[in-house]
Amino acid sequence: MVLSKTASESDVSVHSTFASRYVRTSFPRFKMPENSTPKEAAYQIINDELMLDGNPRLNLASFVTTWMEPECDKLMMASINKNYVDMDEYPVTTELQNRCVNMIAHLFNAPLEESETAVGVGTVGSSEAIMLAGLAFKRRWQNRRRAEGKPCDKPNIVTGANVQVCWEKFANYFEVELKEVKLSEGYYVMDPVQAVELVDENTICVAAILGSTLNGEFEDVKLLNDLLMEKNKQTGWDTPIHVDAASGGFIAPFLYPELEWDFRLPLVKSINVSGHKYGLVYAGIGWVVWRSKEDLPEELIFHINYLGADQPTFTLNFSKGSSQVIAQYYQLIRLGFEGYRNIMENCQENAMVLKEGLVKTGRFNIVSKDNGVPLVAFSLKDNSRHNEFEISDTLKRFGWIVPAYTMPANAQHITVLRVVIREDFSRTLAERLVLDIIKVINYLDALPSSFSAKVKNTDELEVKVKNGTVVKKTDIETQREITDVWKKFVMARKAKVIC
């Protein structure tokens, strides 16, 4: 990230009074110190600063796992010095990765014969997994177009406007046009009908989201598959589907086993999932699996031998730690199908406790669905006195990190708060969060006036000029402008932080 300017002269140094029994001089903040530091002092200085971070267990913005069993922690620490890419030196670690790939492929109903091995790879996270899957689709499309004697310089991919930012990165980095299905108020996932309408001969794939970041909702992959099969039949195209199951891939098989979203659908050619989300592993580990070998072009696989035997690799990076791979294998064999199902059911039950508590306040609309990722997304019924950004900001006083954000196009005027329910978020914490939200609401109600109320009463938000006539703006227009002002206000505050 870009480094912002320092706030004061003192920011050029790091001061540590507590560690002064070891060291008396300050450390330069942005330059390496000239001399060595006692290990006790270095530890204490860093530890003191880290205390100011938020508590990961109370970070309800994140889908990422924040707790694992001590036995798994031990395995991770024992393998923290292993470089995963050294497959010849660490053959057991490579074997464990291959076992994970096959377990996940079977979980997603890959059409494998009894002795057939799955095609897939472990990645740093779903972002890398999506990049790899996108590259495979682009290369397959290019190869087919060249074989047909057709141009292959304008590939595109169809998604909903609710996709995670890594899809925008893929499109930008690898020069693929991103064609987005816009959202609408009350419908915050990709409409399969509109998605198929955007498909043309240059579409390398349609990306469906199993567990939207915005509200946890699963997109209708079955309907998308059926509509796309019909269009392929009419046009002679072969447009496939990728399922971004970063959040939902470790949920749907256990909570909704009858839901058809995976390799049971013939057009689904690849699936990614985040092991560090509901795969229950610390960041960062992701997985991408393909339907068959034919769906991963051979020319994308590199073979190296300078670390020992021939080692095939398909990654964007090279070196990475082995710990998360080993942790994923631990969770898969430790919990089994039964254990994962129990955890996901418990998360879903705790989400319902939180939802019911919020509904009882009478102050919120629930934006999330009961079926999907176990989270609760909600917005204020009346934000004329205070809005969701103020609630998010005030909740930090109680230690809670609850994000507030606006929906993508064309629902930007909708602002939402979201609480992700992870394994370590208990029913007791859910009930406590509801009580603290009520305290925040009562506190904001008692204020003489809120920032949003002041903004809403300004002339520039109340009127507009149309055909030379001054007219009152609609509620939606006013709310959109209030949201824009708040976003600028929040971002201005964040810009002052050194990052």
Q: What do you see in this structure?
A:
It is a single chain. Helix 4 (126-147) crosses helix 5 and helix 6 packs parallel to helix 7. The longest helix is centred in the C-terminal third of the chain and has 39 residues, at 323-361. The strands form five sheets. The chain has a seven-stranded mixed β-sheet, with helices on both faces. A four-stranded antiparallel β-sheet has the order 12-13-15-14. A two-stranded antiparallel ribbon has the order 1-2. The protein starts with 12 loop residues before the first strand and ends with a helix. The chain is an alpha/beta fold and 499 residues long. The model is unreliable at 452-462 and 494-499 (pLDDT under 50). The chain is built from 14 helices and 17 strands. It has helices at 39-50, 70-78, 91-107, 126-147, 165-173, 192-198, 221-235, 252-255, 323-361, 388-395, 427-446, 451-456, 459-462, 475-495; strands at 13-14, 27-28, 119-123, 156-160, 177-181, 203-209, 241-244, 268-274, 286-290, 302-304, 311-313, 364-366, 375-380, 404-406, 415-420, 463-466, 469-472.
